[in-house]
Design a protein that fits this description.
138 residues; alpha+beta; four-stranded mixed β-sheet
């Protein structure tokens, strides 16, 4: 299957995708904020510039897009049919970087929770997951 966009337009689309303030991230931030928790965003001093940081709790919430972070078993994590070599290499590197960042954060004494994009379809379930994590039970 060929790309439906010309290369210049595809590049423009790909450049517009940013790692910060995605819709899934904003949804998680909203849920956490409504629960009464306060946090810092995108702390550059920490490995991977985590999405939500709770310094007093020493906890971090990462909001991962299923495609970009290769969420295993998820329908949104399908390798594109064009330029397969590029995408495989890029997505494998993303997973490696995630592992490295999680390990470095744990070594620094942080507890990390990953919320996947596909989980946000059930906000009640995500709210329970977030509550357990932030209250020290997860």
């Amino acid at each position: 299957m060929t790309d439906t966009f010309k290369p210049a337009r595809r590049s423009e689309i790909m450049r517009s995708i940013t790692p910060k303030n995605s819709l899934p991230e904003r949804l998680v931030r909203s849920l956490v904020h409504r629960m009464g928790w306060r946090f810092r965003l995108h702390v550059k001093d920490l490995p991977g510039t985590p999405d939500l940081v709770f310094p007093r709790l020493r906890k971090i919430i990462l909001v991962n897009g299923c495609f970009w972070h290769s969420h295993e078993g998820c329908g949104k994590s399908v390798l594109p049919k064009s330029n397969v070599k590029f995408w495989r290499r890029k997505l494998v590197r993303n997973k490696e970087r995630d592992r490295e960042d999680h390990c470095a954060l744990r070594k620094l004494g942080w507890t990390v929770l990953v919320v996947w994009q596909c989980e946000l379809r059930d906000s009640d379930r995500v709210s329970r997951k977030l509550t357990r994590f932030l209250q020290g039970h997860g």
